[in-house]
C-alpha cells in the first residue's frame, strides 16, 4: 500500500516570496506522483505529475516539483507566489502499474499574504 | 485538457430522501471512475472505484447499499445516496480516468455539496 505525508498543514507566505510545500511518500513498489490544487468549493486541478524521466517536473502556474527517490520526496516549489495561489494543495501517489486510485495526503493550505 | 462535470453542484434535501449525483467525462472516455468524499478542511477519502459496465468496488467502511454507484457508459457515472441522513452531508467529488488510452492522470469534477436537513 502507498501513503503520503504532507508535513505542513498550513503555510503562510508573503506575496512574491518563494514557497516550498513538502510531500513524502511511502511505497514498496514504484509509483507515479501528482500535485493537485483545490480552490474553495471546487474540485481538484492537476498542477503537475511525475511519471518517469527527468526528476524535475514543471507544471502550470509557475509551479515545479522534484522527485527524489532516495528521500522518497516530491516537494512542490514556486519562486514567487501571487495572491491567487492561495488554495489547498494535495500531494498524491499511485502505483505505476494497474488501474489503482490515487492516495492523497492530508493537504497543505497555502495562504499568500499581501 | 480532459474535463469532468458534475451535477448538481449543490443540493439540499430532507432526511430520508434519496439524492442522485451525476458525473460526466466531456471529452474523453472514462473507463474508470472514482468517487471521493471530503469533509471540511480534510483530505479526500476514496469511497469506491467503478469500471464501465462492471459493479463498483467499495472501500472498507463504505455501505454499498447506501451509496449506489452506476457506471453504465463510458461518459457517465452516478452516485445515489439512498435514505440520506444529516451525517451524509459532505462534499462529493468524482474523478475519471481513461485507463485503456494509457492516460495515467485522474481528472476531477468540480464537486457536489450535499446538505441533508
Please give a handful of descriptors for the protein shown.
heterodimer, A: 114 residues, mainly beta, six-stranded mixed sheet, four-stranded antiparallel sheet, 12 strands, B: 117 residues, 0% helix
Structural account:
The complex is a heterodimer of chains A (114) and B (117). Chain A is built from no helices and 12 strands. By secondary structure, chain A is mainly beta. In chain B, the strands form 2 sheets. In chain B, strands 2, 4, 5, 6, 9, 10 and 11 form a 7-stranded mixed β-sheet that branches. In chain B, strands 1-3-8-7 form a 4-stranded antiparallel β-sheet, with no helix packed on it. The relative contact order of chain B is 0.34. The model of chain B has no long low-confidence stretch (mean pLDDT 93). The chains are: A mainly beta (114), B mainly beta (117). At the A-B interface, strand 5, strand 6 and strand 11 of A face strand 5, strand 9 and strand 10 of B.
Radius of gyration of chain A: 14 Å
Largest sheet geometry of chain B: 7 strands, mixed
E-strand count of chain A:
12
The total beta strand count of chain B reads 11
Largest sheet of chain A: 6 strands, mixed
The helix-and-strand class of chain B reads: mainly beta
The value of Rg of chain B in angstroms is 13 Å
Report the largest inter-chain contact: A-B, 22 and 27 residues
Shape of chain A: globular
Structural class of chain A: mainly beta
